[in-house]
Amino acid sequence: QVQLKESGGGLVQAGGSLRLSCAASGGTFSRHPMGWFRQVPGKEREFVGAIHRSGGSTVYTDSVRNRFTISRDNAKNTVYLQMNDLKPDDTAVYYCAAGPDWQLDLNKISWNSWGQGTQVTVSS
Fold first, then answer.
1. CA quadruple 63, 23, 72, 21: dihedral positive or negative?
2. Which of 31, 49, 97, 113 could form a disulfide linkage to 60, CB 3.0–4.6 angstroms apart?
3. CB 70 within 8 A of CB 49
């Protein structure tokens, strides 16, 4: 299993941008699909989006499509979440996750490795 560590969270005004990073270690990063999730206290963890292990395809939840972009650099063992036009409703702890290397359908990944999360706060 890969170990994951997020960074880049912080406080930003509505309409602003942030880029989250998730560094992986302890496995073959390029073989794993990667995902981003978020969670607000008292609510279930929400899927944000995911990227194929090649970087060639992505999927997003409707609320972030056209505002957020997931990318990866397999040479750096890092996946990114670029967040633009942030809204107060985007405030959450953001987590990255890795899926099994044999799963290719981004809508059916059994996520099995998680980072510790990074806080994103968007002020109005």
1. positive
2. 49
3. yes
